[in-house]
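Pipeline run #58 for the internal structure catalog. This entry was flagged by the ingest filter as a single-chain record with no existing model, so it goes straight to prediction. Upstream metadata was stripped on purpose; only the residue string is passed forward. Reviewer on rotation: M.T. Logging verbosity set to normal.
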Amino acid sequence: MTARLAHILRHPIKAVGVEEIERAPLAEGRALAFDRRWAIAHVAAKFQGQPEAWQPKANFLRGVAGPELMAVTAACQGNRVTLGHPRAKTITLDMASDADRARLIAWLTPLWPVGRPAPSHVVEVPGQALADWPDPFLSLVSLTSLAALSRRAGQALHINRWRGNLWVDGWEPLRERALIGQRIRVGTATLEIVQPITRCRATCVNPETGAEDCDTLAMLESLWGHKDFGVYARVLTGGDIARGDTVEIL
């Protein structure tokens, strides 16, 4: 079976919303455009205002600390971002507007757990994705690996639990992990598989409800003996990708 690119996902605001897109340009040495472009600092962050460089994830709102965030959906057109949630009104924001950034903090506050450091302000570092690593990685995940894990869990696990960028269909389960150090071609872009992704408890949350409903970490341990799921990749040669593109191991 020929492996193909089944889904392209991005997360314009770190931990706050996921969006599926049809196609995307990839640039050499860059993350997926508009993926984690913004993040929400909390009041206990180790910096004030706008940092000049990447900052560790502990400074920001995350799904592991606020499970309700896992149920946020997003649609992004440049600086214009629309967010939705099952228990909140849809909101459309101009992320370049200070007033709209304040509206976003107000919108998020009821979804954030009482007792956690409260949402403070929107952070943006030009040219830097505010992902868990400072490196310009894309995350790549396999649908067949997810199907195997879903069978172990006894329920269908939604792709949005995993905050992946590129979902491949057609590999045998866990094939992606065996590709570390190798290269693949997706559309007209070439990527190098760099390292596995170790997962946290945010993946235990159902992204349709915002509630924990499966111990995915225990399922990973019981099935494969570790808590890794998916891999990070680096763009070596830029190009265009689209859903349905062949994924070729080089």
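catalog note: The chain has four helices and 17 strands.
catalog note: The two ends are 16 Å apart (CA to CA).
status: ready for reviewer M.T.
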